[in-house]
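INFO batch 0412 | record 1 of 1 | parsing
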Amino acid sequence: MTTDRVTLYHSPNTRSSSALLLLEELGAPYDLHVLDMRAGENRQPAYLAVNPMGKVPAIRHGEALVTEQPAIFIYLADLFPEAGLAPPLGDPLRGPYLRWMVYYGSCFEPAVVDKARELDAGPQAMSPYGSFEAVMGVVNDQLRRGPYLLGERFSAADVLWGMALAWTTMFKLVPETPEIAAYIARHTERPAVARVRERDAALAAGQSAAA
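INFO prediction complete | emitting tokens
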């Protein structure tokens, strides 16, 4: 187990909440560097030096600085192998695990954002995801085999997707099919989810009080 603490650059109730959830699921030693995005702290020079895109999450671990949510998940789950949330190299599930990590950022998020903005996916040969319906078809087909993305094995990919599907269905960006609803229910039952929600609520309340 690594002895270095992980610093998570975090803003409550954003994409970085899923990274916070992963740290909790891993039992990792971490510190939070909390940003108030409503006050524009993520656009200040200090944070732009961490992530020029001004986005969260980002993590610092020793000399390593990692941005982009799937990369952070892959890095952290491999960093704490004793938690058993990442199939190791040589495991037959390693490839499918990586597939679902990358599919999230390369297909799911672009498709959801385009759908929400009522934008066309673009020509098939140029679109990174094809169509929204195709993306969601793949997700639902996999969840139908459940209970998790890797079958019976819960992994860091489920931490990522559980949070993402809970948020996107809540805001009606993704249809809540029976498969997705059941998957979200399993996600919500995990004790770490309640801990993160409580912590985010307290952080958000503190930011509102300071505004």
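INFO post-check: Residues 94-191 form a domain with the Glutathione S-transferase Yfyf (Class Pi); Chain A, domain 2 fold (CATH 1.20.1050.10).
INFO record closed
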